[in-house]
Each structure stands twice: as C-alpha cells, then as structure tokens.
Design a protein that fits this description.
Rossmann fold; 7-stranded mixed beta sheet
Length: 292
C-alpha cells in the first residue's frame, strides 16, 4: 500500500473490535491533527507522488464502479455530487469520465490535496473543510460520496450525519478489516500506517449507518480486481503471487461471500437514504434513471 512518509507511524489503529455501533472516543485524533497527517500523502517527492497518483487512479475505477452500480440499481441519476474527503480528485475525475453525477464538487482536509484536486478541469470546485462541518445548506446536493473516509475518522456517525444533512443520498465505501487476515500484526501495522482508526465488519458498517439516522437502500462488496493485487509487484514472481491471491480471493468471494468476508478484507459499499423516507419514494429533487 502507498506510504506517504516517515511520520505515518504517528497514527495507529484502535484496539481490536473497532466501531461497535457507537463512536469510540480518542482524544489524540482531531480534524486538525488528521489534516496534518494526510498532508504527507500529497506533499511528497516527485517519484513517490507519481506512484501515489497512479495508485489512487486505479482505486478510483473500482470506487466509481460501486457508486454507479448502487445508484443505477436504485434507478437513480444524481444531478450534482459532493465527495467528502475527495483527496486528489481521482474519483471525481473517473465519475466525470463516465458522465455520471452531474456537476462534481469536493471537500478535503489536506491543503496539498485541495491544490491538486482544484486544478483538475473535470471538477467544478474543491474546498478545504474542517473535518466536521460542511459549508453548505441542507439538501444542497443530490448525492454525497464518502469513499474510504469513515475508517479514518474518530466519530464516523457524526461525519456521515453531516454529509446526509447536505446530500439527499450518500454512497459510503469502507474496507471490512475485521477478519482473520487483517488480525495479523503486519496487517495491523499497515492499517495504522495509512491512518485507519476503525476496524469494521459488515454488521458494524450497517450499525454505523443506522447510528447516523440513515437506512441502507442497496449494498455490495468487492474482493478487488487483479490489477490492485499486482500493482506493487516488482518482479515476475511477485506478479504471479498477486495473480494467485486475486484468483483465490475472487473464487472464495464468488462461491461463499460470508466465508470470504471472515477470511480477508473486501471493500463494502452501500447507498444510504434518510431513515424516514418511504421505500417507494425518492429523495427530494432526485429523478429516476430512464429505462434502457
């Protein structure tokens, strides 16, 4: 996984169990300290920055697949999208490439990331925010996206609730790291090194959504494509190992998804709507996607 610099050791994963349907207090981690931490991810040397950009662009393709799939399963076509924690804007650019989401906006806590994302012509506007409060009125956007953000924050339901305040529907994506593989010491260190403060399984992710006052209208999980498992290979043997890892995990997930989730990390995504919205009703302002 991409490492931003030597100070990545300063944030460590919370004790085993992670989020259990309530916020876990942790006074060391505030939006201001986390902003400084993630600044390292984008303010690096040219070679490392190029590697990180390619890694994020690869991840953006899978994330965009999940956003588009969940919305289209619900026959929804957003006309205005806000990504919270947009990083360098890779996902927003991928959504624009697919002509999905209408005008695209982002907010981010790391100034270096804001500078990169704001320079992308595919994105309407990117703003710096404080990690807690969004500078927009209620219902300003049809779709909000929180992709690989909630595992990085001390109080996930609070941030999700704030996104739901300004967005009529929200797509959430998180890694499910409460599994046998992720319990290994090396994996726990890696999760800490990239700033993961929460360890979730699917049940905990669902409780998190409920704690934010939302309900899940659709969900999926993904064991990740071959290209992700091969990305850091620097030899033929490492590439072969990546291929074998991808093939075994894809097969296990296809044949027995619950068993696969207990064994290794998959990425989980869900479409969240207001809890009190009738199931046959769209959020205000949304339109149904025309039948193909």
């Amino acid at each position: 996984m991409f490492e931003a610099g030597p100070d990545f050791h300063k944030v460590r994963i919370l004790r085993p169990g992670g989020y259990a349907g309530r916020a876990i207090p942790h006074s060391r981690h505030t939006p201001s300290t986390l902003a400084g931490f993630y600044e390292h991810t984008y303010a690096t040397g040219a070679r490392q920055a190029e590697l990180g950009a390619r890694w994020r662009a690869l991840g953006a393709r899978g994330k965009a697949d999940h956003v588009v799939t969940l919305c289209r399963r619900a026959a929804l076509e957003p006309d205005g999208t806000l990504e919270v924690g947009c990083g360098d804007g890779a996902l927003l650019c991928e959504l624009r490439r697919r002509s999905f989401g209408g005008p695209l906006f982002g907010v981010e806590i790391a100034p270096a990331a804001v500078r990169i994302a704001a320079g992308r012509p595919e994105v309407e506007r990117v703003d710096l925010f404080d990690g807690r409060h969004l500078p927009f009125p209620q219902g300003a956007f049809e779709l909000g996206v929180l992709s690989h953000v909630l595992e990085h924050v001390p109080d996930p339901p609070a941030l999700l609730g704030e996104v739901a305040r300004v967005c009529r529907a929200v797509v959430v994506e998180v890694p499910l790291e409460r599994n046998l593989s992720a319990r290994r010491a090396s994996r726990r260190r890696m999760a800490g090194d990239v700033g993961h403060l929460q360890r979730l399984d699917r049940a905990a992710a669902r409780r998190l959504v409920a704690a934010a006052g939302l309900r899940i209208a659709g969900e999926l999980d993904d064991p990740l494509p071959r290209a992700v498992h091969r990305f850091f290979a620097r030899s033929r043997s490492a590439a072969l190992a990546g291929d074998l890892k991808w093939a075994s995990r894809a097969a296990a997930h296809r044949l027995a998804p619950p068993f696969a989730r207990r064994l290794f990390t998959v990425h989980y995504a869900c479409l969240c709507l207001p809890r009190d919205l009738p199931r046959d009703q769209l959020p205000g302002g949304w339109r149904r996607r025309a039948a193909a």
